[in-house]
Amino acid sequence: MKDNNIFKKTLKALEIVGLMIIVIATIIAIGQEVWVMVQHRKVELSDLLLLFIYLEVITMIGIYYEKNMLPVRFPIYIAIVALARYIILGSKELNPWDMLGIGVTLLVLTLSVFLVRLGHVKFPYEEDK
After folding, report:
1. Whole-angstrom Cα distance, residue 11 to residue 7?
2. Is 63:55 a contact under the CB 8 Å cutoff?
């Protein structure tokens, strides 16, 4: 039993180290993006969306650390914002079929968030009751 306890503690320590690496890398990326905006003396919508993605990553890490579980909605939110940013950045180069594909993907992601939330409300976990 003692070996199992050491294994669990080692995994937990590695998990915390991994989360800290992600947080530090995200903070560095935020700083780099802010620096680019300062250098250009201009803030664009794509910059704000990228900062929002970084904020979602930090929020997701906080929830994971606090509840020791990863809500599936947060990566979906990040994917939705990332696709919106992709459309904004490349809308001039995208052909109609690409735009249609991205639109359908956004619709599927949005429906998946709706279904996850609906399932959570209709069939809550025992601790959520």
Report:
1. 6
2. no
pTM for the structure as a whole: 0.75
> Do residues 56 and 74 lie in contact, with contact meaning Cβ atoms separated by under 8 Å?
yes
Place of tokens 């669990």: 8
Least confident of 18-22, 45-49, 91-95, 97-101: 91-95
What's the gap between Cα 61 and its chain centre? Answer: 9
Other beta carbons within 10 angstroms of residue 60's beta carbon come to: 19
Q: What would the two tokens of residue 16 be? A: 């915390």
Alpha helices by DSSP H, listed for the chain, are 2-40, 45-67, 73-90, 96-122
